[in-house]
Amino acid sequence: MIAGSAALLTSSQVLSSYSPNQNPESPLKLKGNINHSVCRWCYDSIPFEDFCQQVKAIGLNAIDLVAPKDWPLLQKYGLYSSMCYVAGDVSLTQGFADTANHSKLIAQYLDVFPLMVKAGYKDVICFSGSRAGMDNETGWNNCVKGLKAIMPSAEQQGITVHMELLNSRVDHKDYMCDHTPWGVELCKRLRSPNFKLLYDIYHMQIDEGDVIRTIRDNHEYLGHYHTGGVPGRHEIDETQELYYPAIMKAILATGFKGYVAQEFIPEAKDKIDSLSKAVRICDI
């Protein structure tokens, strides 16, 4: 009966062992296997300086998706920009797949690279943008044309450009880079060691599933990871369908040394406590 009872443990009971038992304002005792970060936009209700203080207090050293204007606050609190934005407006729909966007995008990236070098940052995000009736071949060709205008500079300055994989089924209708094979093909055509994919676990669970196998088979092209609970992009605990400790173990097994950033929108009243718990879940 004991063995039978053990077999009936729910995912909620298993995940409860990852829940933080300490005050979330106290630094987490992290194992050092995963480099943890957190995406700024999910906590926009918290003033940025307050957010920096709270992130630092719980033991994180990096924040994702921060534009150059806010880098001084990161530096004030000893925080790293683990995934940079370019200056100016960032569009998920007007990306490199459309040649009409190239002149603006090329200028933005060539402008931000020296700023990143000066600040000591290494990674910047980019987007394919919408498909807008294009077939895959046209999208690949257009992306290659635009990205080849910035990749020599990125390579020379030691910067990696990451195109994010977003789902086109629920959140970002018509987004072109919506499946891992599409992004991997783009990487192969560019043939630059400084171009990678940002594998968003939430998005790819929605559009293709088979997350762990995909990570194992394509890890050489994956330069950064985002989390998020499915469905809804909320907490990554027992309320959703993914088991993040297993996913983190798969990422670690590939030899990955980059950042895993929490990118869920907290539903709980105490948003920083939710963040603290998520980091504990992923700290394998």
Summarize the structure.
The chain has 284 residues and is of the alpha/beta class.
Q: What would your notes on this structure say?
A:
This protein is of the alpha/beta class. It has a single domain (28-282), classed as TIM Barrel, CATH 3.20.20.150. The protein contains twelve helices and eight strands. It has helices at 2-7, 11-16, 48-57, 71-76, 102-119, 136-148, 151-157, 180-190, 201-207, 211-218, 244-253, 271-282; strands at 35-38, 62-66, 80-84, 123-126, 160-164, 195-200, 222-226, 259-262. The strands form two sheets. Strands 1-8-7-6-5-4 form a six-stranded parallel β-sheet. Strands 2-3 form a two-stranded parallel sheet. Strand 2 (62-66), helix 4 and strand 3 form a beta-alpha-beta unit. Helix 6 crosses helix 8 (180-190) and helix 10 (211-218) runs parallel beside helix 11. The protein is globular and about 50 Å long. The two termini are 30 Å apart.
Comma- or semicolon-separated keywords:
284 residues, alpha/beta, TIM Barrel, six-stranded parallel β-sheet, two-stranded parallel ribbon, 12 helices, disordered N terminus
Q: Give the CATH level 1 class.
A: Alpha Beta
The dominant shape is globular
Radius of gyration, in angstroms, nearest whole number: 19 Å
Major pleated sheet: 6 strands, parallel
Helix content: 40-55%
Q: Give the uncertain stretches in residue-range form.
A: 1-24
